[in-house]
Design goal:
The complex is a heterodimer of chains A (781) and B (343). By secondary structure, chain A is α+β, with helices and mostly antiparallel strands. Chain A has 19 helices and 33 strands. A seven-stranded mixed β-sheet of chain A has the order 5-7-3-15-12-13-14. Chain B contains 13 helices and eleven strands. In chain B, the strands form three sheets. In chain B, strands 4-5-8-6-7 form a five-stranded antiparallel β-sheet. In chain B, strands 1-3-2 form a three-stranded parallel β-sheet, with no helix packed on it. In chain B, strands 9-10-11 form a three-stranded antiparallel β-sheet, sandwiched between helices. In chain B, strand 2, helix 3 and strand 3 form a beta-alpha-beta unit. In chain B, helix 11 packs antiparallel against helix 12. In chain B, 55% of the residues are buried. The chains are: A alpha+beta (781), B alpha+beta (343). Bound molecules: flavin-adenine dinucleotide (FAD) and iron/sulfur cluster. Iron/sulfur cluster binds next to loops of chain B. The site of flavin-adenine dinucleotide has 30 residues of chain B, from strand 2, helix 3, helix 8, helix 9 and strand 8.
């Protein structure tokens, strides 16, 4: 649409810095600011600016939801099922309501209702109450009487697929589609506990395999990983006659507002959602959740604010998790490395939930004309899964990237050389090149096996994730007469550092420092912000922030023009001054110009425009950019072949996220991704008791995850990968950084030992059994 | 957590007078249907007590803190032994020069237990008396044998972290890794009753096997306070090592640990060897047959290997913990070699 009068032509930086950075012509909307030059030409964006609320976090001054204390606030508790499957015959709240401290109680299981009269996992809410103190709530909870008829249940994914397995759901009440996070298609057939299949097909795999010179095939198993947010789920709901205010630990203030309005019959304008400090979400805090609904319902009933903070045990059992999966993956290739066919057959279980797919790694990472996948979701009597950092692609990468490694070996290719052949992405190609050099890959691969039980190895794996954008993302920038600047948006800082990045974005426009900017976010009273999931926060909210700031600056220039005797169009803002071109004599302090404003403040609101070159795909309010996000990780491990203990010594993570806004914070995100991926690979396993359906390790001691001593040396390299797509050209990093870690470790273990581990977590028990180290004969006598 | 009263007496006598029950008894008395607070219990660092109270497995009416009693945290040399006050923190024990010089295996073990935060608060006495980590035991949902209930859930359940020896009745592993070393060192405990009378017995004898009594891990009596741990002075010819293996590098419990004490003569021949294995049985486990194979031998790889294999005799792994057997073999072999050839 070159003729669109609402657009103008601009040349924007395009390509990878250091590897052929060029420019490209784009038509961009007239209300968008001029193109941003590459990072080396900027003063604040692209710099290592320390986290704005870092000090508050370390000193404990920051306010988390659990710190909110309102006048007359009540304390809620949820009565949860202690059996994995039952029909609730009666819920008697009478005695609990007679407790002097109780102000409201509600039933969540409704005898006689085909959908809600059943409990389907240990930990499922049955009733809830609010009382004047946590102690009173606990006492009253013990007074609730439940009559139920226990029913048979099944907790293991394999058992649930047998013909004799008890059914977790009757067909007409089974969940259909997935309300949140990673979507599961609706209206699939349900047989017993098995729902699906979803089938994806291109080309003809039968033909593809028939033309293959080499075929590799393997079965992979990944276990349930829980989110383990430092801050458990929490909400304070304040229902008043004139509207509802909710303080909640959430990844999406605007989404929660919409859910609340729908669920409680309110207008959007009657609902306010606020989050200040947030201790992690990783996908589990994307929606209101059952507990959130409960708190609001109790507040409405009691006409008082209600606080509900989940305990760690509740968190581990009933706040979502990464579903377990089982995958059979078969890949065919010709002698020259070209892939001829990929066939993936998988099933997964998200407990009583859906969405246990294995993502789009196998279908999208490598060029292959013939592809087929079938996936089924299996219901079991366990807490529901939900989206968790790179849902689908974490287990998907575990199988695909190991299979590609296996293929490389059979073809006699170096793992990087094979990927050079089959991976169409120029970005990952550059990442492999840079990474191999820094890691000293080729020399380390050649190292011959050391004598003794401790073996050392290196491995590599790749990442692939959509570059997501949320379209209904808006931001307001306000400039005050005293020169202070505010940024306002509903977007929330879940710990990733968007507060700081917004300050940088706006400071760059005004020629100020990041610390000069006041960032007010996490409140639906401000323009609606994007969700912080799908690695889309920075990509969605920084362009409108820059645009809004730019509009405010133009207004300021109009005021400054006469003062400096210059055309406003000739003015620039830099180093705290407004100046005419580059003439140092003709300049005024930024604050002095502001003092001359006609009104106390000026402001502008902007929202996210489409990517300048168009999107790859658009669905509703969200879209993905034309190019995916890449990433390549290299791991070096030692394996004690007598004890089965794997120690990851080093991980080199080479990533891209468009224009890096703040390398320091990106590094911190990548560290988090690598650690979470390592922890998934080596330690994490939710243990369900098969006889009772209870989670046996609902705490952070018996549920093991990586600690400081388990952390490798992590090096991060971030490309500047300009895409000429928006006012900031930034994309996300959170999810790409976890995807390749586990398979890189597994490939390194293979390199060290010659044994392939296809199961997570790779505990000593798993490693020893793979190594064939059986106990000595005399032991069993 | 349920409400409780708190007292911090300043003398042993009054603490003992308050201590009308032990934690083990209080937990058995707390039946799932009563939910009534029960008993007065002693508390040192509180690391374990608080965990149990938060899970409402322990609901005492009164908590008696031992922290204000003077002298419980002294480390002193006596004629033939070292006396370590039961109230000494793990960190203080590990940092004591005499412990580092004479009982290096103990220092190593302490430095690998829990985390610095835990070691700064946890006491040696509390560590020996902490309750087991079996996840059925630690969940209010399971009324198992050890809590006074009808059966053991672990033996036919999820038992990867459970015992491979002596596991027919209850398959806990003893939670204290420190006890693994102390038993090997021949430590005794000193217990003081309400009238100030003390009794002394070998730690090994103080600890109770499930077949003796499944509801307690030791013989601590009501109104009795563990006042000290006594370590016989090792002779100059003694070598020792402690080695542990866990899934994680820190803040984790061992899957297997081993303490080895060797008495070597001038020509490096082993006069006597003591082996104690942890995390494999309900009490620190001494494989006596394996110990016997060391006597009269020069400690080299074959001797160590054969002793380590012998140590597996009698093992009865459960459905999910067979992997512990090769671990025991490896950890013990390496510990024997390390004791003989300290790095
Ligand atoms: C994550 C984690 C990892 C850990 N890893 C290890 C490990 O690797 N190895 C290890 O050994 N331990 C480990 N521990 C356990 C920890 O060391 C013990 O919980 C701690 O030592 C208990 O000591 P305390 O002083 O806090 O005892 P308390 O909790 O105060 O008391 C424990 C018990 O002893 C009784 N008691 C205490 N002192 C006396 C006394 N003087 N006389 C009579 N009764 C008394 C109390 O009544 C109570 O029953 C770990 C703990 C955690 C949380
Ligand atoms: S092993 Fe012991 S503590 Fe664990 S369930 Fe069995 S009886 Fe209870």
């Amino acid at each position: 649409m070159t003729g669109d009068p609402g657009k103008r032509g601009e040349r924007l930086p395009f390509g990878i810095m250091g590897a052929g950075l060029a420019t490209i012509e784009r038509r961009i909307p007239n209300e968008e600011p001029p193109p941003l030059p590459p990072n080396p030409d900027l003063r604040v964006i692209g710099r290592n600016v320390p986290r704005q609320n870092g000090r508050e976090k370390v000193t404990g001054a920051i306010r988390y939801t659990g710190d909110i204390a309102l006048q007359g606030m009540l304390h809620a508790r949820i009565l949860r099922s202690t059996v994995p499957s039952a029909r609730v015959l009666n819920v008697d709240l009478e005695a609990a309501l007679c407790h002097l401290g109780v102000r409201a109680a509600i039933t969540l299981a409704h005898p006689g209702n085909r959908v809600t009269e059943y409990v389907r996992y240990v930990g499922m809410p049955i009733a809830a109450l609010a009382a004047v103190s946590p102690e009173a709530a606990a006492e009253a909870l013990a007074l609730i009487r439940i009559d139920m008829q226990k029913l048979p249940f099944v907790t293991d994914m394999d058992g649930a697929q047998t013909a004799s397995a008890p059914h977790v759901f009757a067909p007409d009440v089974a969940p259909n589609g997935h309300p949140s996070g990673f979507p599961a298609p609706a209206d699939l057939p349900l047989r017993g506990n098995v729902r699906g299949p979803t089938v994806e097909r291109r080309g003809d795999v039968g033909y593809g395999f028939s033309t293959a010179d080499v075929i590799v095939e393997g079965k992979y198993r990944t276990h349930v990983q829980t989110h383990c947010c430092m801050e458990t789920h929490g909400i304070v709901a304040d229902w008043r006659d004139d509207g509802l205010t909710v303080y909640i630990s959430t990844q999406f203030t605007a989404g929660i507002r919409r859910e609340l309005a729908d669920a409680f019959g309110l207008r959007l304008a009657q609902v306010r959602v606020i989050v200040d400090g947030m201790g992690g979400g990783f996908g589990s805090k994307s929606t209101l959740g059952r507990y959130g609904w409960i708190a609001v319902a109790l507040s409405r009933e009691a006409h008082a604010p209600v606080r509900l903070i989940l305990s760690r045990a509740e968190e581990q059992v009933d706040s979502g998790n990464r579903p377990e999966t089982s995958q059979q993956l078969k890949i065919g290739a010709r002698r020259d490395g070209t892939l001829t066919a990929i066939a993936l057959s998988s099933c997964g279980s998200a407990g009583v939930g859906l969405g246990a797919g294995v993502g789009d790694m196998a279908s999208s990472l490598y060029t292959c004309p013939n592809f087929e996948s079938t996936h089924t979701d299996v219901f079991v009597n366990a807490g529901p899964g939900c989206a968790m950092r790179a849902p689908g692609n974490v287990p998907g990468a575990f199988s695909l990237e190991q299979s590609i490694d296996e293929l490389a070996e059979q073809l006699g290719f170096d793992p990087l050389a094979l990927r050079d052949r089959i991976d169409p992405s120029p970005v990952r190609r550059e990442e492999r090149r840079i990474g191999a050099l820094r890691f000293d890959w080729h020399r380390k691969r050649r190292r011959t096996g050391a004598p003794g039980p401790i073996k050392r190895g290196v491995g590599v794996a790749q990442s692939h994730w959509g570059a997501y954008v949320q379209l209904d993302s808006a931001c307001e920038v306000r400039l005050m007469r005293d020169g202070s600047v505010e940024v306002l948006s509903g977007v929330q800082d879940i710990g990733t550092g968007i507060t700081t990045v917004l300050a940088q974005t706006v400071a760059e426009v005004f020629g100020l420092e990041a610390r000069d900017i006041v960032v007010r976010i996490g409140d639906t009273d401000f323009p609606a912000g994007p969700p912080s999931y799908g690695s889309r926060t920075t990509a969605s909210i920084t362009p409108p922030a820059r645009t809004a700031a730019w509009h405010v600056l133009q207004a300021l220039f109009r005021a400054a023009g006469p003062l400096l005797g210059t055309m406003p169009a000739k003015l620039v803002a830099r180093d705290g001054f407004i100046m005419a071109g580059h003439d140092p004599a003709k300049r005024l302090r930024f604050s002095d110009v502001c003092a001359d404003l006609r009104t106390d403040s000026i402001s502008a609101i902007a929202s996210r425009q489409d990517d300048y070159g168009g999107f790859g795909r658009q669905y509703g309010n969200a879209a993905t950019a034309q190019r995916d996000l890449g990433g390549v990780q290299f791991a070096e491990v030692t394996v004690d072949t007598e004890t089965g203990v794997i120690f990851v010594e080093r991980v080199l993570a080479v990533h891209d996220c468009g224009r890096p806004m703040n390398p320091l914070q990106i590094e911190s995100q990548v560290h988090g991704g690598v650690l979470m991926g390592l922890s998934f690979a080596l330690f994490e396993h939710r243990v369900l008791d098969p006889r009772t359906g209870h989670v046996l390790n609902p705490n952070l001691e018996a549920y093991k995850f990586a600690g400081a001593r388990d952390a490798p040396a992590i090096e991060v390299i971030v490309l500047q990968n300009y895409q000429a797509s928006s006012a900031t050209d930034a994309y996300g990093i959170a999810e790409p950084s976890i995807i390749p870690t586990a398979p890189a470790i597994a490939n390194a273990v293979y390199n060290a030992t010659g044994v392939r581990l296809r199961t997570t977590p790779m505990t000593p028990a798993v490693v020893l059994s793979a190594l064939g180290r059986r106990p000595k004969a005399e032991a069993s006598s | 957590m349920k409400r409780f009263a708190w007292t911090q007496p300043t003398s042993l006598a009054s603490a003992a007078a308050f201590a009308e029950t032990t934690v083990a008894d209080a937990m058995v008395a707390l039946r799932p249907d009563t939910h009534a607070g029960h008993g007065a219990v002693l508390q040192a660092g509180g690391i374990d007590n608080l965990d149990l109270m938060k899970e409402e497995l322990l609901q005492p009416n009164l908590v008696i803190s031992l922290r204000a009693i003077p002298g419980l945290d002294k480390i002193e040399k006596q004629e033939a032994s070292w006396r370590i006050g039961a109230g000494t923190t793990l960190m203080a024990v590990a940092g004591h020069p005499a412990v580092q010089a004479r009982f290096p295996a103990l220092a190593t073990c302490l430095n690998q237990s829990g985390s610095p935060q835990i070691r700064a608060v946890a006491t040696l006495g509390g560590n020996l008396l902490q309750r087991p980590r079996c996840w059925y035991f630690r969940s209010i949902a399971f009324d198992c044998l050890r809590k006074g209930g009808g059966h053991c859930f672990a033996i036919l359940g999820e038992n990867a972290y459970h015992a491979v020896f002596d596991n027919e009745v209850c398959a806990i592993v003893h939670p204290s890794s420190v006890a693994t070393v102390l038993v090997a060192l021949g430590a005794s405990v000193e217990l003081t009753g309400p009238n100030g009378a003390t009794r002394r017995l070998l730690l090994e004898d103080f600890l109770v096997r499930p077949k003796q009594n499944v509801r307690r891990e030791n013989d601590l009596q009501p109104r009795e306070i563990l006042t000290a741990i006594l370590l016989p002075n090792p002779s100059a010819s003694v070598r020792m090592a402690y080695l542990r293996l866990g899934e994680k590098q820190a803040f984790d419990w061992p899957l297997v640990d081993a303490a080895v004490i060797l008495e070597l003569d001038a020509s490096s021949v082993c006069r006597q060897g003591v082996i104690c294995l942890g995390a494999v049985a309900p009490t620190p486990y001494r494989p006596r047959a394996a110990e016997a194979t060391l006597a009269g031998k020069v400690i080299d790889v074959p001797t160590a290997r054969s002793a380590a294999r012998t140590a597996l005799d009698g093992a009865m792994p459960l459905a999910h913990n067979e992997f512990k057997l090769p671990l025991i073999e490896t950890v013990l072999r390496r510990a024997i070699l390390r004791a003989a050839n300290p790095v």
